[in-house]
Amino acid sequence: MAAVRELRRKPIGGLTVEDMRLLIRQDVGLAYLPPLAVEVLQNDPLAEGDMYEGDLLAAVLTRSAEVWREIPELGRDVRLIVSELAEVPPALKHDIEGFLAR
Q1: Of 1, 8, 12, 44, which residue is 20 to 30 A from 36 by alpha carbon distance?
Q2: Would 15 be classed as within a structural domain?
Q3: How far is 24 from 30, CA to CA, in rounded Å?
Q4: Does residue 4 form part of some domain?
């Protein structure tokens, strides 16, 4: 939690992929961070923080359905991103299936 508190003080434009992954996983800044994360994912769908290939995508995919109801156009963008993945890493398969099932 100390890392999250520290990141909340960091300018949003200075956040790294790992910073976004961590904050999104903790449901912090969900009004602002998912659009930034999707921009990154449009350029690199398997963008990697400190955990594994595609961990930013996993963080985005696993947010509650409420997040996607509030920003449906972003949900459409995420669906397009995952539909264009040539190969799905095993670590993401379950998260993608859950997101698409909503």
Answers
A1: 1
A2: no
A3: 7
A4: no
